[in-house]
Amino acid sequence: MDNANIKIEKLKKGQRIAFIATFVTLCLAIVKGIVGHVFNSEILIADAFHSGADVVTIFASGFGLWLASKKKSMKFPYGLYKAETLVSFLIGLLIIWAGVEIFREGYRKFFYVTEIKEFPVLPFIVGMISVVAAYFIAKKEKTIGREIYSQSLTANAQESFLDMFTSMVVLAGILLSFLRVSYAEGIIIALISLLILKLGVENVWTSLLVLMDANLDPRLQSEIQNKINEIYGVKGNSEVRPFKMLECRIQTSPTLPLYRAHELMDKAENFITKTYENIESVFIHVEPSKQNIISAIIPVKNIDGMDSKVHAHFGRAPYYIILRLDDKGMEIEDFYYNEFLNEKKHIGIKVIKAVIRYKLDMLFTAQIGELSFYMLKDNFVDIYSIKEDLTVKETVERYRNGQLEKITEPTHLLEESQTEK
After folding, report:
1. Buried b (16+ CB within 10 A) or exposed e, 353-377
2. Alpha-carbon torsion (192, 193, 199, 202), positive or negative
3. What are the residues facing 391 on neighbouring strands?
4. Fewer Cβ within 10 Å of end Cβ, the chain: N or C?
């Protein structure tokens, strides 16, 4: 099963839990409303409205996940990944209206106390059931929401945990009303209305931010940028804008051919889609690096600074000098001793694996075998031809003067490079 189908299956899993939670919450809202009406419990009726608001929000989440699971089309080339957010925005406006209406009812209750002659057993039992149901719904929504990276389902889980607290407050209000505590019913109804308003305002505000492509996860942005910068061939600092539709701007060597730049783009895109499942679409832009610092490696016979002599073969060289070149000059960054000289096969490849951490841009060498050549090209390293016994300083001067030619194919066949490179 490919990544697209896996994502669709996960979205369907989110839909199922959302619709199940919608049904359970709807049943609770209806029961609370009926029992509250029969027993004249304004607190329970207000809580029924609160649950009704949750029903609409959870259903919107499920409906949004259903739309998001639809495949891309000619009319919607990026899919309907923002449908969930748009629905949440509209529902948030309705929830705000419901909160205002319930607050008005709570304010009215400040001026008289409802007379209750018998202990409200059934309303109390309904309140207890509501607490338990809210706990299990919240737990399931939280688990599935994190698994499928659903913003709305995770938010619903937080609201369901809040519903537990609300139901506990309702239980307390029922008891206080029975004990004829002044203003208790009005205060609790007003508190519930404020919670409903909070839910509505948060839905509207978060939805607006997402619709306007606000960055809601700086930590994820920093993490992706650091990982992209580690990809070999990326130069400078990449710029990432992390949404479900991610835009990434990376820099690479100005001398990199177009087809190699496309390979680098594919490499970055594959890494992002496989590592971050919540990213729906990835757009990679490749630009030439603005940094003029170049990292180069030269195989040498001896260690004598800039006067070190170039060795005839890449893999057989006893030492390597790593240089940093810029517009102002050059400096030696490090020396590497060839610890693989006594081995018989693939010496050059082993050397490359050891020095690849320097993020090399180019190699100056007289000869190079087939395996080493293609491994370096796969890592976006330009290879220049130089003569044996030139000094490091002379090599760099010839490069700056444009006197060196690129090596476009191995100087040895595969069979000849087994023991050398």
Report:
1. eebeebebbbbbbbbbbbbbbebbb
2. negative
3. 309
4. N
Beta strand spans in 259-400 (E): 281-288, 294-300, 319-326, 329-337, 362-365, 382-385
Domains of the chain: 3-211 (1.20.1510.10), 218-288 (3.30.70.1350), 294-417 (3.30.420.130)
pLDDT interval class at 360 (50, 70, 90): confident
Pairing verdict, β 281-288 and 245-252: parallel
Q: Which residues of 280-310 are buried (b: 16+ CB within 10 A; e: fewer)?
A: bbbebebeebeeeebbbbbbbeeeeeeebeb
Closest CA to 233 of 273, 266, 276: 266
Residue type for 254, please? P
**Which range, of 215-229, 289-303, 371-385, averages the lowest pLDDT?**
215-229
Which of the two residues, 107 and 415, has the higher pLDDT score?
107
Task: Give the pLDDT of residue 415.
Answer: 44
Q: Is 258 exposed, middle or buried (0-12, 13-18, 19+ CB in 10 A)?
A: exposed
CB atoms within 10 A of CB 339: 11
**Token pair belonging to 102:** 């319930």
Q: Which two tokens stand for residue 249?
A: 């701007």
Burial class of residue 195, CB neighbours in 10 A (0-12, 13-18, 19+): buried
Q: Is 36 exposed, middle or buried (0-12, 13-18, 19+ CB in 10 A)?
A: buried
Angle at which helices 83-109 and 184-211 cross, to 10°: 160
* Lowest-confidence pick of 148-152, 207-211, 270-274, 318-322: 148-152
CA distance 347 to 320: 13
Q: Percentage of the chain with pLDDT > 70?
A: 72
Write down the pTM of the prediction.
0.47
What DSSP state is assigned to residue 71?
A: P
Retrieve residue 68's tokens. 């998001």
Q: Tokens 């007003």 — which residue?
A: 190
| Residue 378 pLDDT grade (very low, low, confident, very high; cuts 50, 70, 90) | confident
Q: What is the DSSP letter of 72?
A: P
Residue 62 tokens, joined: 């499920």
Cα 213 to Cα 11: distance, rounded to the nearest angstrom: 21
